[in-house]
Amino acid sequence: xxxxxxxxxxxxxxxxxxxxxxxxxxxxxxxxxxxxxxxxxxxxxxxxxxxxxxxxxxxxxxxxxxxxxxxxxxxxxxxxxxxxxxxxxxxxxxxxxxxxxxxxxxxxxxxxx
Amino acid sequence: xxxxxxxxxxxxxxxxxxxxxxxxxxxxxxxxxxxxxxxxxxxxxxxxxxxxxxxxxxxxxxxxxxxxxxxxxxxxxxxxxxxxxxxxxxxxxxxxxxxxxxxxxxxxxxxxx
Lengths: 113, 113
Description:
The structure holds 2 protein chains of 2 kinds. Helices cover 0% and strands 57% of the residues of chain A. Chain A is an all-beta fold. In chain A, β4 (32-38) and β5 form a beta hairpin. Chain A starts with a strand and ends with a strand. By secondary structure, chain B is an all-beta fold. In chain B, β4 (31-38) and β5 form a beta hairpin. The model of chain B has no long low-confidence stretch (mean pLDDT 95). The A-B interface holds A 4, 6, 9, 31-32, 34, 36, 41-46, 49, 51, 89, 91, 93, 98-101, 103-106 and B 4, 31, 33, 35, 40-45, 48, 50, 56, 58, 90, 92, 94, 96, 98-107.
């Protein structure tokens, strides 16, 4: 059974600092690794999806890496802003054909002005 | 954003009463999912559907049933609600390509007294 872990559970940084969020998974047989953002009281919004054959994906200030051999993915957010305050969740995509995702518990990020 | 709505958005009910949550999508996505989100657990899959009348159990399906009579609607029923089912419930859809992410609804906050 796939287990996905995110450490730390919470993180507070001053504005302008780079953010590094970690995700680890136990089964390297994944279709993809996805990162989502969740604002309080809201649903999840997709940030980045890394295919199993890829090593990284980038979108603006966001960069996510994937190392299947070590069972790790890292989300980097450059030059953090107060608007980046949210909970970030990673999810491992199952190799079955039903698109199922196994989620980590998330990292709650606060960026202070 | 994918057009996914959930109803009701908030519900308070008593132990032992039946409850039905509705998810409606306008994107014609084949796959639909019901998750619950609890502190410290991330999102856990309850049931999923891979087509009209085609459903299967997820990780935490005990006490829940689902139905999908139309592509656009996926219903989650708690036959006899218990306090342990107090949670935030999210619906998601997936178009079926591994390059595509899941799209989430805004969530339903359910409290069982």
